[in-house]
């Protein structure tokens, strides 16, 4: 029983992390049809930059901000310099992002080396806390904080998309890009803002996820695959879908690890294949 | 070669062009046949033969992507299935797992299973389009590699199989440099000719029409889905042939050989060369393999991936149809292969 | 017209390319008779880059000490890079041997690469292969290659003394193991259990974690309460992750560590959450802070030669260093004579007995090292650093752990469920 509850909690918190990573990915895809396969590289870059800043100023929250800012700026640059020029060429954009991720991964290995980095989170969320209604079961406070942060980001994104003018433009753009442009909105600006926020979220997730686990080369591919699976299962372009997908994948991974470690990792991919085969647009997705 | 003669495209070539193409293929064939006379063992096998069979695997991707409009990242997986199956049914260093069949039984079964695997993958992937196809095939590729790594009963887990050898025909060691090169060349030529032939058949033309406008094809009564699945089956067979050679070349197969990274490398080869002409994947494979082997001498050994990544980026940004497309544009000649779909 | 010209031109292009290729192969640097070419192969790509770099530092240090000459000949080092997969190791080895024409190849770094390299060695009997740091047992125990030499000990040997110490001195009677799900950790767990079970200990459960898994929280939730300690054989990032998560979840069972769990890469990992490591016993081929003049000299030389290297040489640097030292000694013995398929040199290597920074090293009949193993415990050093303090040196451990060879072979290769003692 204890194991089941703890495993469920682990699944929820891992799902929270996956949601943080995948939300930016799905946001960008929803509006721009851009499958950014460099999203994992942005995750790792945010983590490294965040770590470097947090290490210098010894203030974790500043590291989080730096991780967000660095990748947001890079994302903006990529959108303005590259993706803008190949609008509508989905496949070519995907290829370019593959190239960018190969290059970024190697540059990061060059700069930060192959060591493992770990953050020191603030005292408040470091360590473990007693789970309520339980006989003395302890659970990492940081993971609870992660759950709260993911919920906050989720609500924040929802408010941003549904309650702000830019959000309204983004939603309009998802539905009908041409119409949005025709009604006098500067679509390029909306695209740039979206890409910036999406990339920034990857960097943010990098610091937050890097604190939960650790940062090392190879994490980029891991989180890229995780976000891909999450958004495909949930439905590309849908924030709610990303949340649902993240929970399913997070739980599947942890139950797999706990109850059937040998093939645990395979199950995740089987869920994906099943989802694509039965409902190619994802659980919450609409047909393009 | 017979390819030029069996030309059934609508565009009937002039006599002059026909002669030109016969001369072109003939001379290229001669050059490839004569190449080992000029090269050392290393250049014959590690560069020459490897380019030929990796190019064949990349060709299976070009066939799907260029003619079928479906970019699949699972091509190396199909190759891997064939490699694993010759290990399981044939002879390996694990006699407790391998069934030890003769090569003439093990090889056809391996090719058959790999083709079946590709067909099933196609049945799943052909339901999706564009980037979804890339992602579902990537997922299948990763899942298969993970499964092989974890399964010891059939796939011998992390270590995989070693001791894989091509059959000995008439006392000839097919893994010796010269025979292995010619074996790879023969398979590559057959694969190339097969692709060129099929693209000009009714099936191939219909497939290209499906790529260009699936709705119209459906409306005039073609079974779009079946055409796509059949394209996957054929790509599986091509990749499986390359996979056999890959297994014999390394003498081994393990989950690391078919992980996500190597799968993406196949895409890199096809894109570098260009998905507009069946020769593209071979050009791409040659460039990739040269870089892979000699990057360490040209630059810091640790920066191989940077060089590959930058080269890939430049090609994708500057010439969406790869080196072959670049060449075609330089010679201002209209493409005879499928036009770029991007 | 244009078409046929294009055709011919492209063929000429192909010819040109072909001749250029051939030219390149001819232009491969000619071998000077008074120099010996050595290939140094390590993982210089991918996640193990740091380890590979440190391995090559060890080799370079050995060559530097010999002033890049041995047996009166100049030594030229050519580097090769793999990404830790057997395929890439063989690809790099083939290039070093067939294209760069090295006389001796030193490498590779990791276990399955080593097994593949042994098979590759059999196809090139006239080249001598000296293992870098790979430590899979099978490389030399079963089906060895006559021209493959390993001067470092293997993953089972590395565990010598640990099971005994845990059961008898530490008093742990019941443990669980947490290790990655592949060959090297299998052999580490086997080495530990051989002694631990004999001393009356029980291994209640073994958790095999899929490679690449970073989230251990659900494994941690499965660790039972009625145990005395956890044996952990994870490397690098994974060890750091496990420790952090275990501590965060309120775990307090002491740890017993595999050979690469608390090596320099983990002790030197950035971050402050390391206090839990103190008191952890482990065993391996080196001990950072061994109070021995020769070892200290080795560490000092390493630091001097590589100011931006690791704070102390890793076991990878050490293994490659041994390989380099052995090679130089062997070449000196035969005065640089590599004629006759390197037979004289290989015979000299087989007979070699070296006095190394970690004690005496010699080879058994399978060309596998017999050497000292260090039983250590983590203590806090100066400047808030952690280090492995030597508790005991287990002298001259052989590949069969002191058992009769036939009896040892009967145990079978280590796997997920071999051995067992619940």
Would you give an account of this structure?
The complex is a heterotrimer of chains A (288), B (342) and C (422). Chain A has 288 residues and is an all-alpha fold. Chain A has 11 helices and 2 strands; from the N terminus they run ααααββααααααα. A two-stranded antiparallel sheet of chain A has the order 1-2. In chain A, a hairpin with a 7-residue loop joins strand 1 and strand 2 (138-140). The longest helix of chain A is centred in the N-terminal third of the chain and has 31 residues, at 2-32. The radius of gyration of chain A is 19 Å and the shape is globular. Chain B has helices spanning 15-38, 41-68, 75-89, 103-125, 131-150, 177-199, 202-212, 214-219, 224-250, 260-273, 280-298, 304-318, 322-330; strands at 161-162, 168-169, 172-173, 252-253. Chain C is α/β, with parallel strands linked by helices. Chain C has helices spanning 2-26, 49-65, 86-99, 111-122, 138-141, 162-169, 183-198, 217-222, 236-248, 264-267, 293-305, 315-333, 343-351, 405-410; strands at residues 35-43, 69-70, 73-82, 104-106, 128-130, 148-149, 174-180, 202-209, 229-233, 255-257, 281-284, 353-356, 359-363, 369-380, 386-397. At the B-C interface, helix 1, helix 2, helix 5 and helix 11 of B face helix 1, strand 3, helix 3 and helix 4 of C.
Q: Point out poorly predicted stretches of chain A.
A: none
- Computed Rg of chain B: 20 Å
How many helical stretches of chain B?
A: 13
- The total of beta strands of chain A comes to 2
Structural class of chain B: mainly alpha
Helix content of chain A: over 70%
Which overall shape of chain B is indicated by the principal axes computed on the Cα atoms?
A: globular
> What class do helices, strands and sheet pairing of chain A give?
mainly alpha
Which oligomeric state applies?
A: heterotrimer
- Separation, N- and C-terminal Cα atoms of chain B: 32 Å
Strand content of chain A: under 5%
The gross shape of chain A turns out to be: globular
The helix/strand series of chain B, from N terminus to C terminus, equals HHHHHEEEHHHHEHHHH
- Mean pLDDT across every amino acid position of chain B: 88
Q: In this structure, how is the largest beta sheet of chain A organized? A: 2 strands, antiparallel
- The percentage of residues in β strands of chain B lies in under 5%
Largest sheet entry of chain B: 2 strands, antiparallel
Radius of gyration of chain A: 19 Å
- Portion of residues in helices of chain B? 55-70%
Number of helices of chain A: 11
Question: Count of DSSP E strands of chain B?
Answer: 4
Subcellular location (chain A): Cell membrane
Membrane topology (chain A): Multi-pass membrane protein
Organism (chain A): Azospirillum rugosum
Family (chain A): Belongs to the binding-protein-dependent transport system permease family. LivHM subfamily.
